[in-house]
Write the structure tokens for this entry.
Amino acid sequence: MIPDRVLEVMLNGYGHFGSTSNNLIPAHIDTLGASSNPENDEATFFVRKSLAKKTLINLDSNGMAAVYLGLPSHEAYQIKGHFTGSRDLTAEELEVSSKIRNYFIDTISAMGLPRENIEKLYGVAPDIGLTVKIENIYIQTPGPEAGTKLEF
Amino acid sequence: MIQEKHQFAMNGMYPSTFSTCSKEGIPNTTVISQVWYVDEDHIALSFQFFSKTRRNISENPLGYLSIINPMTMDMYGLEIEFVRSETEGDLFDDMDMKLQAIASMSGMEDIFELKAADIYKVHNIKDINL
């Protein structure tokens, strides 16, 4: 089972989905929400297909994924696993994404950054889900426990 | 290679994302506090923790970095390659001072410590069209 705390950050924080090519050139893309199936240790990360071309090529050829999950408090986790497939997002998942993207827009614009520009990144809905079978989870919060593997 | 528009995305106001991979091809993605302009072909990243990123770079020097101009939210993707680390000198001192300012603003004074300024060659920069 995915630990509750990791689920909390996965579902309410921001994320970056990493992959790598067969010739060891890494890539990543921002995630715009996530859903999970804790019982089989799978999670689906929402992204924009137009920004995910390299990621999809990497996943189809190599299959290995790493996802950074973080909160503004600096609490962060790294999950590692294998890509199991991509799919359309459900209406419920799109609603989840809309809520978290609006939260990001409100939070970042409250720092004084132009809202209309933040919406270029977070105002557009994701249109594909990348599903990962989670095999390892590591603490990535800066500090002495960073890098520690979580048992689950 | 690195233009003025890219330097606006290196001011530390908005976190950057950095990906590496091991020699077995296992990726690792993290958020970094500081991207430092060195010259038109090189940047420096702050090395703060003995991390998976650091181990990966020792095995495979290739990395991918995305940076964001915080005012325009223009995003850029950089393909980079590790060159060397510096643990003293003007670059290290400047990065250390900036890191302490970032740490102070984010309440991480006791956590953020610059161990080295890692210098990377920039092979390619692309606009990420949002």
Summary: Residues 42 and 136 of chain A are 11 Å apart (CA to CA). Strands of chain A lie at 14-20, 26-31, 34-37, 42-47, 64-70, 76-87, 128-139, 149-150.
